[in-house]
Amino acid sequence: MTIIDLNADLGEGMGTDDDLLQIVSSASIACGGHAGDAATIRRILEFCKASGVRAGAHPGYVDPKRFGRFRLVMPLEQLLGQIRGQLLLVRHIADEVGVALSYVKLHGALANQTAEELAFAVGIFGSIQAMDPDMAVLALDNSQQVRAAKAVGLPLIREAYADRAYTADGLLVPRAKDGAVIHDEEAVIARCLRLARDGEIVAVDGTVLKSGARSICLHGDTPGAVNLARQVRHALEGEGITVAPAVPEVERGVEI
Fold first, then answer.
1. What is the extent of the structural domain holding 59?
2. pLDDT value, residue 83
3. Residue 252 falls inside a structural domain
4. How far apart are CA 254 and CA 256, in angstroms?
5. Does residue 131 belong to any structural domain of this protein?
6. Which of 8, 31, 92, 188 is spaced 20 to 30 Å from 131 by Cα?
7. Would you say 55 and 29 are in contact if contact means Cβ atoms under 8 Å apart?
């Protein structure tokens, strides 16, 4: 049986949370850095508990005016403090609600930077591992995030993006470039089906990338996001693919 996890970044003020929560199997919850607050975190966690959607934390640079999509320069310990603060907030509320917090997915510029820079990613993931060694990380497959997660011993869920263009080296095309976000519904659905069935993603230059991703991100901040997410799930299930949370890989002490 083929299983694919559908995840969405929620609590970001896009007005699509309630609809997406009825479609996805994992919710990456903004926890006060680039977006979100205690009220939005609690509401989404309560839905997750009631509906069986897996809950995860979605921390980023504390820069809500620019939605966490610009890289900030600061001492590493200051950044780690920001991340720990966001994780503590969402974990505290999760404990009150009585729902497990299963994974961490980095947001925006922070995610892109860790995907590119191994030492930086090791520092970030090492701090998360020190807080909770059993917390999984949702990581962009074929990026430095995967190597860093293995190095520090975090359980790993490999992720791919339904509506983002890829470079030939497996990274995301920067949002500032034309074509970085894919808006064609049929193209997005075809990509998700190919990933689920064949483990392949086609980059912008035609390179066929092999991917072990078992979780697909569906963005909630693009036009028609809810309908697209619904069509993706319908297409997957129509091919006999089960939409459910992916089981994390666990490899402790992997050398890099």
1. 3-243
2. 97
3. no
4. 7
5. yes
6. 8
7. yes
